[in-house]
Amino acid sequence: MSAGLDNLKHVVVLMMENRSFDHMLGGLKKQDPRINGLTGTESNLDTSNEPAKVQPLAEFQSQLDPDPDHHFPAVHKQLYAGTTGPPAAPSMGGFVQSYYDQRKDVKHSRQIMFYFSPDKLPVLTTLARSYAVFNGWFASIPGPTICNRAFAHYGTSFGQVGMNLFYPKTPFLSIYDRMLKAGKNTKLYYYDQASSTMEIVNLLKNQPKIFATYPQFLDDCKRGELPDYSFVEPNYSDHLGDGGGEELASDQHPDHDVQAGEIFIASIYNAIRQNPDLWKSTALLIAYDEHGGIYDHVPPPACLADGFKATDQDTGVPGQPFAFDRLGVRVPAILISPWIPKATVVPGTEDPVNGRVFEHASIPATVTKQFLGTYDERSPREKAALTFLDLLSDTMRPDADCPVFHFA
């Protein structure tokens, strides 16, 4: 066990919404060729058969409207356009044509290829360059939010590939139920009552005591009372706060303001970073639930079948049932701890020798391994999922080597 693991007492996961790796972090390849980002030559054909190249022209808001389709049939098109579909390799060539389907506007559809230059996302890119960025973290399913977030909570979606909120008679416990059953502390921090989490509808029925709000997270960090495992959710909607002021959605879901999400990410990081005892004993993972229909160039790999199956009626793609044996589109993921060497890049599918593939089932797998040890009542996918705390080293970096964010 490394010194970093020996000091680890808290794992925190912040899950944002609907952005692909290339869209948010692809521009970092110019700074560090180890990062599997964009060369600038990647393209998709539009519906007029003209190539639409990637360009660093992404805007904070008002560009991805309507919200790009990320339900199973649309993602199938994004992945497999120009091929016969599975088991053929994904072409990653259908993003522009998929976006065209929503507005029938060729020029607008090409914006799905736009990405942020690193200077536009100073919080996310600073964290990626200061700690560990994953080249190979994929959504668990080539589909929408709820089924992907289920993998983060349960290690499976129990055969669901859509937005069904209710999972009756689930054969496996959520990571929160497992922790409580073992006498451990855990909380799911949601933003506020007006923007409560989609998962609460499902999880609250059993364990209301696991829920707390964003202000409570900040207070728990200040007082050094963070639980063993915390899952943090952003604000999902623009609304009036308790004090009457406007609360901007901070989830970065298109077409919400990406800058509001940057500020929210920084607030979670700063809350941990500014408590010295908490800082040296916490690992923070920032991840995104799925790609939101936005371009990424890396074909999702195959994975161990989950033991569940969805029919083609479930997937909405004729002749394409789903055995949960391949992953969704790649998303940003960053692991943060003072025990992680600066500018760590975790190789992915681009490295056939040392590459490692992670997905959202890696979250309950890691938390289970760290706090519960041997635990057999889990999905096949979770049992097979890689864990990530081995990235913590024996050396804690000096305080001056770890950034703090300041906002006016």
Descriptive keywords:
alpha/beta, single chain, eight-stranded mixed sheet, 408 residues, 12% strand, Alkaline Phosphatase, subunit A, two-stranded antiparallel ribbon, 14 strands
The secondary-structure element order is: HEHEEHHHHEEHHEHEHEEEHHEHEEEHH
Secondary structural class: alpha/beta
Helical run tally: 15
Q: What fraction, in percent, of the residue positions are helical?
A: 25-40%
- Sheet of most strands: 8 strands, mixed
> What's the total count of β strands?
14
Total of domains: 1
Widest beta sheet: strand line-up: 7-6-8-1-11-12-4-13
Tell me the overall shape. globular
CATH superfamily: Alkaline Phosphatase, subunit A
What does it look like?
There is one protein chain. The protein has 408 residues and is an alpha/beta fold. The protein has one domain (3-24, 119-401): Alkaline Phosphatase, subunit A, CATH 3.40.720. It is built from 15 helices and 14 strands. Strand 6 (186-190), helix 9 and strand 7 (211-213) form a beta-alpha-beta unit. Helix 3 crosses helix 4 and helix 10 (214-223) runs parallel beside helix 11. The chain is globular, with a radius of gyration of 20 Å. The relative contact order is 0.22. The mean pLDDT is 94.
